[in-house]
Amino acid sequence: MSETARPGGIALGLERITRFLSTVLPYDPRGKLRIVHVAGTNGKGSVCALVSEVLAAAGYRVGTFNSPHFLEPNDALRIQGTPIPAAEYDALREWIRGLDAAAQPPNGPLSLFEQTTAAAFWWFAERSVDIAVVEVGMGGRRDATNVFGAADGKGIGQSLVQCICPVDNDHVGVIGSTVEEIAREKCGIMRPESWIVIANQDRADAFHKIRQHALRTSPGRIINVRRQPSYDIHVPDFSIKQAAGECAPLRPPADLPSWSAFKGTGQRCLRLKYLPSLDTSGTSSSSSSPSTAAAAQHAEGDASAAPGDKPARVEIDLPLVLPGYHQAGNASVAFYALDVLRTNFGFTKLTDTAIQVGFQNVRWPGRLSWLNLASRRMAHSGEPRPLSSDGGNSAEHDESLANWLLADGAHNEPAAVELRKYVDTTLRRIAQQRSIRATRGRSNQGAPHVRWIIGFSKGKDMAAILGRLLQPGDAVWAVPFAQPKDMPWIACEDPRAIGRTAGGPASCGEIAIESFDCLAAAVDRLAADASDDRLNVVCGSLYLVADVFRALEIQPFSQTAVPQ
After folding, report:
1. What is the pLDDT of residues 294-310, one digit of tens each?
2. Alpha-carbon distance 318 to 338, whole Å?
3. What b/e sequence results for 221-232 when a residue is b if at least 16 CB atoms lie within 10 Å of its CB, and e otherwise?
4. pLDDT single digits (tens) 92-102
5. EC annotation (predicted)?
6. Residues 8/488, Cβ–Cβ less than 8 Å
7. In whole angstroms, how far apart are CA 531 and each of 163, 369, 403, 434, 534?
8. CA neighbor of 407 nearest in space, from 207, 548, 530, 217
């Protein structure tokens, strides 16, 4: 049963969306679509971005549906990385609302998210995408995206691969009260006879529930990422060798501060050793081949497989462009989803080179994004300077710490742990650079402290998140964010409440705290102080990060016409 769709609320369930797709639209768009379906607590968006970028680099026409949207509702629907035009999106949504109202559905009208989901599937079908990469909105089992049949053709549409990213406590009380219940809800996207890729899980209770459900649903077609040999390494003199016309060209590197990443003579890579079920010669089978079945057996660690049956593994280095230690895990999930597509479902253009190019080209805004404040500062003096789409200056950037913001949508405790790791690594790099400058006769200021510019949605465990982020000497600027469009169920936490939580017993009075009535006041204050020597980090909500992109007039997605 579906919950009643309340105006401005979240209503889980599949009856309304299934009825609308199958009986109200002129035709059911699912019948024209094959998808990669991605669920989990953290990492879903990064996996979708990687898979989509690789498919596009290989020459496939790929639709991507993310939730939530970033800057505007239309940017959740993209083909080849370009959002559906805003006017077309608005007209499509209005058409869907009209059809739904005229049908007078017995279970009530579609929710706002169901309208967006129907719009995405219709647009993808009308534009004849080769494949769609679909991110779950909330949970999985009762999410509006969970309406596709299995890879063997049973049901309408085909969910070829289901990826389960790391699962932890989030949306507690809505999709489950324990990690096991939340994991079970997310496993609801699994389909018999389809392929399931399970990310490395930090929570053992989540992993056991996910693996148990996968073995019941599609035994023999499970890739357990944590059993695959992989290494997060630095590869000297790394390069991608492309044949002429083999795949998309490489993008130029983003303009970032030198201390934002390792600057050596090579590239941070994920070195994977995969089983040769992956056919990179261009041949493929539409069903599970013996080698693929063996690969799945070993991927799951099946003790019945004889040691002599193990084929030699093939090694590949995948560039890790998205920052953060956790991105190695997301890259593994994306790779094995692509592995399955080219091995079992005829996506023969997914060569190793195409995968490397896609991994090198990927961008995913709002996740450990470095944003330049120089344009805001120039605007104060009446000389605005444009920004590039990745947040860096279009001209040569200034290495001054005061010119940069680190923006990340971390909004739960596991994401806060990863953010703090990255921040600590960045602080060490800055300290090392300053130490080198000191040996050359310049002053040595040492590592800076952190200023956390934080906003939360209501209902988040602020104490747990702040406890993972804050250290003595840090500062907190608590700010609100604007109401996200088409998401009336989202409410912003009062900045004063954030400040009180940050100044609780755990802070020991060593955290400087300020509250702001609007984000613009905080950004203007940063822009006005060119001598600031703190590392400024925006986090706590993706909606807040989106507000920062708007304030700095950064457009992260392609604005070219959607390819016909």
Report:
1. 455 445 644 334 445 56
2. 13
3. bbbbbeebebee
4. 999 999 999 99
5. 6.3.2.12
6. yes
7. 46, 22, 9, 16, 9
8. 548
